[in-house]
Amino acid sequence: MEALLGLTLEQIGQICLKEGLPRFAAGQIAQWLYRHRVRSIEQMTNLSKAARERLSAAYEVGVTEPSDVICSADGTKKYLFGSVEAVMIPDQERATLCVSSQKGCKMACKFCMTGRGGFHGQLSVAEIISQYVATEEAERLTNTVFMGMGEPMDNWENVKQAIEVLTAPWGFGWSPKRITLSTIGAHVERFLDECGCHLAVSLHNPFPEERLQIMPMEKAWPIRQTVETIRRYDWSGQRRVSFEYTLCEGINDSRRHADGLISLLRGLECRVNLIRCHRIPDSPYGPPSQEVIGTFERRLNDAGIRATLRASRGEDILAACGMLAGKKGEKI
Question: Which entry of 85, 151, 218, 244 is annotated as an active-site residue?
């Protein structure tokens, strides 16, 4: 059966026309899906019984419920939807959902558990939106980041429609400024032309030949080309661009790398989010010492590049950056 969850108001309207329902029923259905977060068509009580029966014959709400939930000592929660994981990160008044866009990932970044596990399929819009609807914190989520499993721009049409559902007045009604999409640089111009959300670019090494060794997709999406594309856009408004930089001991944590990053980003209105490399099973990559991380951070800031070390959250439940594998909700 076809899922209603994730459909736009226009798409719901087409279904209403096909099923002989009045035009205004589309708004009612959207309200049940996105404001009330119902699980069944039968719960849409302001539709007639006959209308509900007609819809139920060919459609379902289509919410995917989590198969497992596990909590970190720091309050972070990891939700498992089959082989897909989403992470809820609490921080005082904020509740941020780190959402996945694919089953696995094609990008094969060497320090990432998701990339090492390979690609197993695209998530539908319904599967993406289910991550918002089915979490226990659904009604108090304040922000979302497309930083979970997968490369969002490799599933852009479905991700774009999910963002429309999140931001439209007939959907969740969120401001685009509450949403950040992370990419290795794939199709970045398309994103910037078609979406008003914040952008985060996974950079991790300023030198193309070295970046290629840990991020094979440098060959398809060169980081220098990505940065030059970003420079062509106006960043003086509310939309922000940031760069993610995972510090790996002996790989990209030297003064030379800091200076290369400064040279690459000089003059661009941006922020660098430094991330301590998280140790994952059977991987040679690990974090530098706190002293090395502090020196790297200070060198960027002294050169006028705003840099902050992102706090690691959920590391004990394999929920921190680069640790999502979709196998089971386990602790380490």
Answer: 85
Which pLDDT score, from 0 to 100, does residue 327 have?
Answer: 55
Catalytic-residue membership of 244: no
| Cα dist from 68 to 38, 40, 189, 238, 285, whole Å | 20, 21, 37, 37, 28
Q: Give, for 103, the enclosing helix (H) or strand (E).
A: strand 102-104
Strand partners, 79: 69, 86
In terms of DSSP bridges, do strands 77-81 and 84-91 run parallel, antiparallel, or are they unpaired?
antiparallel
Query: What does pTM read for this prediction?
Result: 0.95
85 catalytic? Reply is yes
CA dihedral 200, 202, 204, 210 (to 10 degrees): -140
- At 211, list the tokens: 């970046």
Q: What is the pLDDT of residues 171-227, one digit of tens each?
A: 999 999 999 999 999 999 999 999 999 999 999 999 999 999 999 999 999 999 999
Set 105, 195, 277, 321: catalytic member: 321
pLDDT at position 326: 60
b/e map of 3-34 (b: 16 or more CB within 10 Å)?
bbbbbbbeebbebbeeeebeeebbebbbebbb
With a cut of 70, list the residues of the chain below it in pLDDT. 326-332
Distance CA 209, CA 207 (A): 6
Both tokens of residue 8? 């736009």
* Helix, strand, coil percent content, the chain, rounded in steps of 5: 35, 20, 45
